Amino acid sequence: MFQDDPYLIPRTSTEFHSFSLSKESGKNAAKFVVDKHPKYFEKDIAEPHIPGLMPEGFNVLQLEDMSERALKNQILLRKLKTSVDMYDQLLQAGTSISLETSNSLLDLLCFYGDREPGQGSNSGDNSELEEPEEAAKGRRHRSNFGNISDSLGIKWRKNNNAERIFNLMPEKNAHSYCTMIRGMVKHRAYTNAFDMYTELLNNRLNADVYTFNALVSAAVEVKERYTERWELVEDLLRQMAQQNIQPNLLTFNSVLKALRWCGPLGRIMALQTLSEMRALNIEPSLATFDHLLGIFHKSARGPVEMIYDVIDVIKGKSFYPQDPDDANFFSDAMRICLDLKDVELAYQLHSVVETAENRKMMGAMAQQTSYYGRFFKLLCTMEQLDVVLKWYKELVPSMFYPNSQGMLDLLQALDTANHLEIIPQIWKDIRQLGHSRRLPVVEEVLSLMARDTQSPEVQVAFADCAADILALYEIQERRQSVLEWTATSLGNVTVLFARAGRTAETWNMLELFKKHNRIPSNLVMNEVLNCIKQSNQPGQALDLVQMAADFSLPSTSKLARRALEELQLSEEQR
Question: What pTM did the predictor assign?
Answer without folding.
Answer: 0.82
